[in-house]
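re: ur question from yesterday

yeah so i grabbed the chain u mentioned. its 176 aa long if i counted rite. heres the sequnce exactly as i have it in my notes:
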Amino acid sequence: MKRGKKLAINLALIIVILLGLYYFGGFYFSKEQCVLETLRGLYGTETREIMELQQGNYIITLMADENDESFSIVGIKKKGFLYRTASSSVGVQIDKERAMKVSGTFSSDRGGVVFIYRNHPEIVRVEVEMQDGEQHTITEWQENYAGFLVNDKKEWYPGTYKAYNAAGELIEEVEY
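ran it thru and got these structure tokens back, copy pasting raw so excuse formatting
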């Protein structure tokens, strides 16, 4: 009977360890490691961190490649002291023919985030008007990138993005 009892205890211990690994799988202690593993898992090639936006326990990180030909939006959800991948958009190609590239992600539980890449440095301001009436004015750029959080909503609304130069002249208008 001692063998059977020892076998049952060992099997229970193995099951508990496997369930713990399953439950905590995909969690990381480091936010940076979570971003890198998310990009690696989704075959992203972007390695340069541009900016980070936070909304509640969600952290959205914008990563770009070295030649500014693509960027990725990596979402992370913080649970206690651990980090886990949330909705992400990887490998967004930048069209060099256009004055700006607009891309974003949306999740019904956290709302949305939009990032803008300007191909022309003469763009100093982008005015955004969402279909629901929400408005944003973007004037701060980090390495030709800018981003903003869309108010916490349960639905995505498209918008008109108008890029202006320092003289106030319209350079390009994009619907996204």
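noticed a couple things. The first helix runs from residue 2 to 24. also The chain has two helices and 13 strands.
anyway ttyl
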